[in-house]
Amino acid sequence: MVFVLAARPRLLYVSSRQLHSFNKRLLSKTVSTKLLNISNSSTNNRNNSNNSNKNRNNSSNYTSFKGRNGSVALVSGVIIVGSYITFSSSNYYNLDTLPSHNGNNNGNPRLLTAAANDGKKYFSTSTSSMHQKNSISQQQHKEGVFLLNEEQVSAKLRQFEESYFVHRGRGVTRYDICQLPSNSPIEDDRAEEIVQVPILQENNIKTSTDWMFFGVFDGHGGWTTSSKLRDQLIGYIIHELGTIFKTASTEENLRYVPNSATIDQAIKNGFLKLDHELVNKNIEKLLNDNNKAKAAELLMPALSGSCALLSFYDTNSKTLKVAVTGDSRAILGSFKDNQWTVRQLSIDQTGSNPTEVARIISEHPDESKVIRNGRVLGSLEPTRAFGDCRYKLPASIQERIYKQFFGKRLPNHLQSPPYVTAEPVITTTKINPENNDFLVMASDGLYEMLTNEEIVGLVVKWMEKEKVIKPQKSFWNVFGSNENKLPEVSDVTNDKSSKKPIRKTKGSNGAFLLEDRNVSTHLIRNALSNGGSKEQTTMLISIPNPVSRRYRDDLTVTVVFFGEDVHGENEAGKLEINANATAGGIDSSKPKL
């Protein structure tokens, strides 16, 4: 089976003016009327033919070719004289001077003989037939779109997967990551970091804790904002946390642990200070210096935007804090009382969230169009984001940027910015490693195709296959009738206002695929499968960018497994690449602690 995305045929009809141009400029002595005979009578026939085709094409005076030996049908894939030649008044190719289709013809025109050997000759040029070695077609890989085989599909899914064992004995045993681009380059990004911090507990016991950070950054309008978050957001938060973990008076290296609300405020400060740097300080610097050489570097992270999802796990207190700006989502899977549950740890911040809509309307009470069609000013879907200066800066500043450098036009109905903020909403959850808790963080593309319950069920099935946990025993397991069904998962989330998957599930019957050693890759594969269909996955993976963006978003998934290490705590422990679940060929020296 071949899957082809065909562009709309461009040469079904040729205008009378084009035919006249062909007569004057193409049909020289080199080409006789035996090759292409266009007479006055055939022109009349073309005009008559055009009247019957008005409903197919609204362009005026479009006609079809007719030669001595009958009609020549112009369909997609058939190339005739002049079909790929671009003319100008001063420069065009004659048929006897066309460049060769490849470098083997020494510059001679490419001659194609019809398979039927009926005497017709065809000369063709195209972006793929230029004699230059680096044609635009070769550079951009513009080829037919064919269905990939299973090996190619898996290679593409696993290209950017990574997996790490955490040998610290402090409650996190492993984390897996996978990314599947749809934009080129991918607009998503991610970062992970572990920091060992010496602390002094309330009873003056000296110990240390690990701060474990996991970030997913879903960019939009470009990749420059998300890449800034990848490189700087965790550093900003570590700095802010350092200001509230006060140094003990007795020992300089030890720090007192602050309360939860103080930690939340430090995380918020880190988010807001970085966004202020990207949007306000950088643009102020640019306008003051009027330095066009630095315009792209300073402006692009402010013009594009990004959501941010950051998880902060303190191993000493076993407390997980999830901070969200935008519509990426974190969920927690747990097993308790013989039941798998899912709890959503972040709520999507979009123009469809009633709480977010009420907040923005209260901040702009006199603006009736502040939220339109579920979007800020009718345009931006997330109500909180980094960058996106069009929704944060006054019109006067934006006009200066546009005139002095470059930028985008003002959003419609802009009156009293800022409308969008980078301030996160933070939740706090106690983790129970003994309950096989696991955290799933992902950009919104995953949740457009899978429910929270499906995601947890897929992770559970993967854990059973990888022998991380023992399969649940039930009546259905004994008789095997439920072998390819996801386990029952109960959603214990209080606020269920987040958006539901948009993909169709008809006929899926809850089936799934179980092929990957990396659980994040496993989730992405199943998200694309629409209920266990390999053909559906193959079809969506086979579509190249940028066309693929119409059918799927960039996908970034991070899964963190909590659990007890049988070897106990180890302050000297490091990260180890899990080669079986890392197909990207990363450098073994990459992880740093």
What's the pLDDT, averaged over the residues? Answer: 79
- For the largest beta sheet, what order do the strands appear in spatially? 22-16-15-21-23-8-7-24
Q: Mind telling me the C-alpha Rg? A: 30 Å
CATH-derived topology of the largest domain:
Phosphatase 2c, domain 1
- Distinct helical segment count: 14
CATH H level, superfamily name of the largest domain: PPM-type phosphatase domain
Number of strands: 24
Structural class assignment: alpha+beta
CATH class of the largest domain, anyone? Alpha Beta
Strand content: 15-25%
Tally of structural domains:
2
Q: What is the approximate shape?
A: globular
Distance from first to last alpha carbon: 49 Å
Give the fraction of residues assigned to helices: 25-40%
CATH architecture assignment name of the largest domain:
4-Layer Sandwich
Structural commentary:
Helix 5 packs across helix 7, helix 6 packs across helix 7 and helix 13 packs across helix 14. The radius of gyration is 30 Å and the shape is globular. The N terminus and C terminus are likely disordered. The protein contains 14 helices and 24 strands. The strands form six sheets. An eight-stranded mixed β-sheet has the order 22-16-15-21-23-8-7-24. Strands 9, 10, 11, 12, 13, 14, 19 and 20 form an eight-stranded mixed β-sheet that branches. It is of the alpha+beta class. The chain is 26% helix and 20% strand. Strand 3 and strand 4 form a beta hairpin. It comes from Scheffersomyces stipitis (strain ATCC 58785 / CBS 6054 / NBRC 10063 / NRRL Y-11545) (Yeast). Keywords: Hydrolase, Metal-binding, Protein phosphatase. GO terms for molecular function: [pyruvate dehydrogenase (acetyl-transferring)]-phosphatase activity; metal ion binding.
